[in-house]
Amino acid sequence: MIKNIILVIIALYALSTFGQTDYSLQTTIRTYSLGASVDGDLGYAYKFWNSDKNKAFYGYFRPSVQIKTSGVVNYISQQMDFFPISFFGMYIGRSSGYRNLNDLQGFDCSNSVNCGADNTKGYYGVNLALAYKKFVLLNLYRVEEIDYDTKELFIAEETSNLIVKPEDTVKSLTSVFGYKLAEDKMLALLNVNYTAKEYDQDSQMTMLLGQFTKGKSSYQLGLGNFRNRNNKNHFSALLMYKWSGEKGLRLF
Hints:
This protein has a single domain, classed as monomeric porin ompg (Porin, Beta Barrel). The radius of gyration is 19 Å and the shape is globular. By secondary structure, the chain is mainly beta. 6% of the residues lie in helices and 66% in strands. It has one helix and 14 strands, in the order αββββββββββββββ. The two termini are 27 Å apart.
C-alpha cells in the first residue's frame, strides 16, 4: 500500500505540468464521540471539458492520496474522482487503517468490543453541491466496505460510534444547508446519518454550523447533538480548521 502511495505521488508530480495540482491540510476535533485528527490531501485534476459560456461549468477527473492521523488511528488512502460537471461527481478508493485504540468513548474496549483491529476499506461515494443566490446545499453520500483483521464479532467503528462485524458495510449521508451572511461567513445546518449493515445500527449527528474564511484558511464551529447507536442523545461540539494550499479545480 505504501509503495503504491509513493508511486501515485510521483505520478501526480509528473502530471502537474498538464493539469492542476491541489493540496490541503485539515484539523478536526469532536467532543462526542471524543476524537481528533489531522488530514492531508494531495491530488491532481485534469479538465477534460469546459463551457465557453460559464467558466464555473467544466468536467474533470482527479487521482489523489490522503493521509489521516490521530496518533492512535491512522489511514492511508488512494482515490479517483470523476466529475462530469464541476458541482456533481463520484469517487472510488481504497484505504488501509492502522488502529491502536485501548479506549473509545461509548464502548467497553476492555471486555466485549474490539477497538484496536486494523482494517482495509474499499469505498465509493457521490457528491453534489448547489448554490442559489446566498443559499448553499451540499450532499455527500459514502459507502465503505470494511474488512477487519480479526474474527471477533463486535468491533468499534470510531467515526460513526457503531458496532460492526469483521466484514461489514457502513454508509453515511452528510447534508449541509447554508446561508451566506457575507462573502467570508456562512451559517449552516449540518446533518450526518450513519448506518451499519450487519447489526442494523444507526447514529446521527445534527449541528448548527458557523464558517469563517480568510485567504486560504477556513474555520468551522458546530454545536449540536449526537444520537448514538443506543438512541441516547449527547451534546457534541465540532471544531475544524482547513488550510487549502492550492485549490485546483475542486469547488468543494
